[in-house]
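Worked problem 6 (solution included).
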Amino acid sequence: MPAAPAPPKSILVVGAGCFGAATVQSLVDGPYRGHEHLITVLDRSHLLGTPASDAASFDYNKILRQDYTDPFYAELAKESLKRWRGPGYNRTYHECGVMMGSSHSDAESARYIQGSLAVNSLPGMQAAGLKAYSLDTPADIKQVYGRAVTGDFEGNIAYYNQAGGWADSRMAVVDVLSRVRARGVKFASGEAASLLFSADKKDVKGVTTKEGNEHRADFVILASGAWTGALVPEIAHDLLATGQTVGTIQLSAEEAEEYATIPITLLLDTGFYCFPPNKDGVFKFAIHDGGWLDPQVQTNLPSMPRTALTVGCERQQVPEAAKQALLRGLRRVFPKLATKEWLQSRLCWYTDRASGDWLIDYHPSYPSLFLATGGSGHAFKFFPVLGDLCLAGIERRLTPQQASYFSFAGDADRIDKSRGETALVRKVLEPLPIKAKL
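Solution. The predicted structure is:
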């Protein structure tokens, strides 16, 4: 088994999003302190030190919560929230609390609500002065929204966790990238198109970009999110690119004030979730479910991202069915907002694994290729601790429990149930015109 990379070995990190930025931060704080110049970050973005504009982390905000039924993730999220509140991250974090709800009729989601509340009520699970508590009636649910006008919440099971909120994800990632760049980490622009192999084809030595440029290194880390499957098609089935629907509304100053103190809302039975407005009065809402696929017949890939940067999709069209699902969510939670014009809608592309666990492991065939991906729609909340996990994986010191979650082997029987009964229902986008795919 080859040794983990250390100076003077060079490292190429493909992807400047959540996984890439976090991993580089831990590398330069650890074995590459004083040798930062040996690390190069390659990203599709034309603006060095910023994730690509269609990356999942390039967004107004992401939910930060510790609401899991699995104590492993709940404990990890608790530690992550502790770091979000501290230096280096707290300027992007807004702790507004989280309302977790579901219709009683969705048995799987209702069980998740009960289980998550039980875990978050355990001794030691809450930061000082914070608590999680059940919302037993519609009136209890409405109370956590203050003066904001809500739906009636009849027939819902819910609880409120004072721990949690949201982060400006774009700013958080750029902050980390700026710090490591200032320390000497190199950045390059280009879209990785294929791996560069050793002469005997038994190892990876870098990548070639669509522009034809070669980027070589002793060790390669793929942190390329939903685009990873194109680089390692042999495992694309385990790293499924799914498009999740997102909408935004521009609120007036008066509306922004009305909704300013609302909590994060997450309805597990439909996957609908929404945020308080940001400093610019932008209200974001979305669906977290099985998502949309864009199968690639020519390359035999199960799905690849289709974004506003995809040729032929410059004005990305969100499927009508997806828009209607978002509207149903708005009517259920904030009916007044359901009549307003939208600022934008788009598909945010996740990298889903069936288990919902991330992939932090060496490629089984190439000893110098490491994968840090498979966020499955919930990795960003762990941004402050994610790099340490990836570094532990690189140095082969993940605990047996961590390895059981984040390795290729993992636990084949574990299925992500956090999205309720919609978790495994995938929808397929209409094919693009042939000329648009050229």
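Discussion: Residues 156 and 243 are 27 Å apart (CA to CA).
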